[in-house]
Amino acid sequence: MKPIELKKGNNAIEMPPVGHYIAEIRQARIAEANDRQRYDKLEMMLEITEGEYKGRFGEIFNDQTEKGYDNAKWKGIFRLTLPTEGQENNDSIEQWVSKQLFCVFDSNAAPGGSKEYRWDGDPKVLVGKKVGITMRKRLYNYTNRNGENVDAETTEIGRLETVEDVQKGKCKLMRDNNRRTNESANNSEPTFTEVSTAEVSVPW
Question: In this structure, how many other beta carbons lie within 10 angstroms of the beta carbon of residue 171?
Fold first, then answer.
């Protein structure tokens, strides 16, 4: 296996820098709780659709695939942890998710009120939706091929925004996500074998 070493300044295609972008949800699914994950999560695969970094997540994935990395990952992933029954403040889980994702369903709606963005529980209805994203810095470490612990940094999707807020420059930056420990970080990210706007069978 060829490890993917995302140290700042290497020759790999760089992640989109910290900032705000317009993106499209390409695929979505519910990842159910298991031994490694305490709660169900709504996971969305996104791609930047406008600006200098248009198509960047796909470029990174394709570059890793062409270089023979068998642990190639799609980097444009956003996960929303779903509440368990009784933790969603008297809302159903569908209503709770609708309020969290109002920016996907209705960019002019305030959280908590509009029927226009009511989610029915099917992640497929998210596919093709435009949304704003905020990229934040993630600090982490990993063990390289020589067994050395290496500090590294990258960026990740930290928050969803409305398209309108991104276009009007109303979004705020986020704090860094510092995941550095004394041992190699083990970030479980979905693996995609195909990138398409059409419905495809995707191994997560």
Answer: 18
